[in-house]
Amino acid sequence: MKQILDAILAGDSAAVGGLDVPDHYRGITVHADEAGLFEGLETREKDPRKSLHLDDVPTPELGPGEALVAVMASAINYNTVWTSIFEPVSTFSFLKRYGKLSPLTARHDLPYHVVGSDLAGVVLRTGPGVNAWKPGDEVVAHCLSVELESPDGHNDTMLDDQQRIWGFETNFGGLAELALVKSNQLMPKPSHLTWEEAASPGLVNSTAYRQLVSANGANMKQGDVVLVWGASGGLGSYATQFALNGGAIPVCVVSSPEKAEICRAMGAELIIDRNAEGYRFWSDPTTQDPKEWKRFGARIRELTGGDDPDIVFEHPGRETFGASTYVARRGGTIVTCASTSGYMHEYDNRYLWMNLKRIIGSHFANYREAWEANRLIAKGMVHPTLSRVYPLEETAQAAYDVHRNLHQGKVGVLTLAPTEGLGVRDEEMRARHLEAINRFRDK
């Protein structure tokens, strides 16, 4: 592994193809025999620091259509938090089901799960049938792993009945020194970014693109009023950028003055600090308060000059979904993913059906959508929202911080990269965008 890293650090990435692939590597894992670790505890009380381990694991066999990548940096997504606390189910059920599909996928059904759904790194090896990528290519990866043997996936790969999220529903994820991906997960690394910056947008940037911009999601147009929950967070920070880039009008919902300032720095003007304004959409754990929905809707109209949201960018889930359904304009769209505050949504259907609103479910992105989202990063039109970076050894603490919402934007992890700041190939372009690249740092 040291020889591989030395070649990459020396700028001789092409040389890695001639080096031996190590028979083991370090990766962040959960263990199948600990799946009951948090039984009886509330979600908030479950601690990823107790379940995420740094282990030496065997290097998987490389199969057709696959690539083995030396991972320089990765990032924390909420699916790693879910994996670490075994919610809503243990991910070992995903690995077992995938393992039954074929002799090749049986590799994934192991008593440990190497997690992580983002990476930036260098291709080490490619399997049979891979022509678009070669050893030495600097890449990032999106997290859609799809078999594409069903006709359902050939219009939109997200509709394939065998689509999975890599590093969550498959093994050998990106929070590790090596990762196994399908070659059609790979995309060019943006040349003006460091390894850790390039690793951080993948999942959330692509998810936000499909959810808000794509015709498969809300199909946002110029002038749309877009309500963005958690507008300075991992998903919301990209939704805010897409709204501004696309000529829409974001209404950014945040939970502190610091987060409001980040939204202003991105260029947003209409901001609601939900804590400062005291919104409480639930009067108790089982009862929502429609008066608060109405107060919230009135505040949005006050900011927009009388307009209700054309699009509600929903991802908190249970806590906010009733309010989201209420405040969307007549004929408007609530587009939803993730549900980080709970999956069992409740809303008053009268406000949906009688006002002809739509709820659209959105899940990650297909390859084309992910490629377009990454292209915007590479062109400097959308920027990483990286706020803090941890070494691989402190990944569990990073996941804990995300679980407890102690972060802004995205939290990165150095895997093989020994320090931050490495991997930039286009210094001139970087200099033009440096302020925006660093917008979230140390926030």
Folded structure, characterized:
The protein is α/β, with parallel strands linked by helices. It contains 14 helices and 20 strands. The strands form five sheets. Strands 3, 5, 6, 9, 10, 19 and 20 form a seven-stranded mixed β-sheet that branches. Strands 13-12-11-16-17-18 form a six-stranded parallel β-sheet, with helices on both faces. Strand 16, helix 10 and strand 17 form a beta-alpha-beta unit. Helix 3 packs across helix 13, helix 6 packs across helix 12 and helix 9 (290-304) crosses helix 10. The radius of gyration is 21 Å and the shape is globular. The protein starts with a helix and ends in a 6-residue tail after the last helix.
Descriptive keywords:
7-stranded mixed sheet; 443 residues; 14 helices; alpha/beta; 6-stranded parallel sheet
Briefly, what is this?
The chain has helices spanning 2-9, 48-51, 78-85, 92-99, 195-199, 202-213, 236-245, 257-266, 290-304, 321-327, 349-353, 367-378, 395-403, 427-437; strands spanning 24-31, 53-58, 66-76, 112-114, 119-126, 138-141, 144-146, 163-165, 178-182, 186-188, 225-228, 249-254, 270-273, 282-284, 287-288, 311-314, 333-336, 358-361, 386-391, 410-414. It is α/β, with parallel strands linked by helices and 443 residues long. The strands form five sheets. Strands 3, 5, 6, 9, 10, 19 and 20 form a seven-stranded mixed sheet that branches. Strands 13-12-11-16-17-18 form a six-stranded parallel sheet, with helices on both faces. It has a three-stranded antiparallel sheet with strand order 2-1-4.
